[in-house]
Design goal:
The complex is a heterodimer of chains A (about 70) and B (about 270). Chain A has about 70 residues and is mainly beta. In chain A, about 10% of the residues lie in helices and about 30% in strands. A five-stranded mixed beta sheet of chain A has the order 2-1-5-3-4, with no helix packed on it. Chain A is globular, with a radius of gyration of 13 Å. Chain B has an eight-stranded mixed beta sheet with strand order 3-2-1-4-5-6-7-8, with helices on both faces. The chains are: A mainly beta (about 70), B alpha/beta (about 270).
Chain lengths: ~70, ~270
C-alpha cells in the first residue's frame, strides 16, 4: 500500500506496525525517534500496536542535541 | 528612549527596514533576551542579537573555553582558552556593541535556578546540547509562559522550532520525554561542523528579533529540519498535543524535573 514517509510517497507490503516499519526503514533504535502519524504524536508504548493503513502520513522526528554543555 | 546620532548610524540598516524603523530599534534596545549555552548555537545567536542592539543579553554557561570548542563556538577566540565562556562571550559582545548590557550566569540550569534566571527576560534561546537541559528549558518556559527558540544539531543535521507556550506546540508535544541516556550522541561524541551550528544559532537570533519586533511569522507549529550535507530544508507541520505531559489537557508534569544523566557527560 501507499503511505507517505517524511513527505515522500512510499510503497510498503502488508500492514505493519510502526515498530515494524521502523525496523524496515533501518531506524536503529525506536528510542531515537518520535513518531507522528497523521498529525498525532504517538506514545512509545503505542508503536508496537498501531498498524499502518493506506495513505497514512508518517513523520519520524529525530532527537537532536547539539549546541553547548551549558 | 530616543536614539542618539551614533545609534541612528549604527542601526541604520535595521531602521531602514519598514518592519523595524526607529520605534522597532528602540524596542530592541529595551528588550531582554537570555541565551542558555554559550556554545555552537549560542555564539552566533549572541553576536547577532548584540549587533542588532538587543539592550540586555543574559548568558548562561557553566563551562570554560576549550581549544576543541573553537571550530564552532565563534564568540570565543584562541586567547580565551581556559576562561569562563560567559566572560569570554561578554567581552566580545561589549567590544561589538557598547549599547548592550550583558548579564552572566556561570552556572548550569537546574530545576532550582531556572525560574529565577529566565524570569526577567522576554525571550529565551536554548543553545544547550543535552536533553535534560532541553526538557528543563521547555518545561520552565511553558510554565512561566516565556516564548523560546529550541534548536538541536547533530553532524550535518539540525532542527529548530519556536515555542509560544500554550499557543503553539512545545518541545514535549513532539518529544514526550528524553531518550534513554546514551541512545543519542551529543556533539562532543558525534562531531559537527561549525557552520551547521551557525545556521541554527542565526535562525534562533532571528526568531528572537521578530518576536520582539512583533513582525513576520515565527517558526511556531513548524519544525524546520535541515540536512546541510545535501542542503535540504524541510518544514514539518506540528500542532499542540492534547496528550502533552506539560502543556496538554491534563498535564502529568506540574513541577520541574532534573533528568539524571546528561548526554554530554558520557565519557567515551
Amino acid at each position: 500500500m501507499q503511505i507517505i514517509i517524511n513527505g515522500n510517497k512510499d510503497t510498503i507490503d502488508g500492514a505493519p506496525t510502526i515498530l515494524e516499519l521502523l525496523a524496515t526503514k533501518n531506524v536503529e533504535s525506536p528510542d531515537m525517534v518520535s513518531v507522528e502519524l497523521n498529525g498525532v504524536i504517538l506514545k512509545r508504548s503505542e508503536l508496537g500496536s498501531v498498524t499502518l493503513t493506506e495513505n497514512d502520513s508518517i513523520e519520524f522526528l529525530y532527537f537532536m542535541g547539539g549546541g553547548s554543555v551549558q | 528612549m530616543n536614539l542618539d546620532d551614533e545609534q541612528i548610524e549604527r542601526y541604520s540598516r535595521n531602521i531602514i527596514l519598514k518592519e523595524v524603523g526607529g520605534k522597532g530599534q528602540e524596542r530592541l534596545l529595551a528588550s531582554r533576551v537570555i541565551i542558555i549555552g554559550a556554545g555552537g548555537l549560542g555564539s552566533p545567536a549572541a553576536l547577532y542579537l548584540a549587533a542588532a542592539g538587543v539592550g540586555t543579553i543574559g548568558l548562561v554557561d557553566g563551562d570554560a573555553v576549550d581549544l576543541s570548542n573553537l571550530q564552532r563556538q565563534i564568540i570565543h577566540f584562541t586567547g580565551d582558552v581556559g576562561i569562563r565562556k560567559t566572560e569570554s562571550a561578554k567581552k566580545k559582545i561589549e567590544l561589538l556593541n557598547p549599547d548592550v548590557r550583558v548579564n552572566t550566569y556561570h552556572d548550569i540550569v537546574t530545576s532550582n535556578n531556572i525560574r529565577e534566571i529566565i524570569r526577567d527576560y522576554d525571550f529565551v534561546v536554548d543553545g544547550t546540547d543535552n536533553f535534560p537541559a532541553k526538557f528543563l528549558i521547555n518545561d520552565a518556559c511553558v510554565m512561566a509562559g516565556k516564548p523560546f527558540s529550541h534548536a538541536g544539531i547533530l553532524r550535518f543535521y539540525g532542527q529548530t522550532i519556536t515555542v509560544l507556550p500554550h499557543e503553539s506546540a512545545c518541545f514535549r508535544c513532539l518529544f514526550l520525554g528524553p531518550p534513554p541516556p546514551g541512545s543519542v550522541p551529543s556533539c562532543r561524541e558525534a562531531g559537527i561542523l561549525g557552520a551547521v551550528a551557525g545556521i541554527f544559532g542565526t535562525i534562533q537570533a532571528l526568531e528572537a528579533l521578530k518576536h520582539i519586533l512583533g513582525t513576520g511569522g515565527l517558526l511556531a507549529d513548524r519544525l524546520l529540519t535541515v540536512d546541510a550535507l545535501t542542503m535540504s530544508f524541510r518544514e514539518i507541520k506540528v500542532k499542540k498535543n492534547p496528550r502533552c505531559p506539560v502543556c496538554g489537557d491534563t498535564p502529568a508534569i506540574t513541577s520541574l524535573v532534573d533528568y539524571e544523566q546528561k548526554a554530554c557527560d558520557l565519557k567515551l
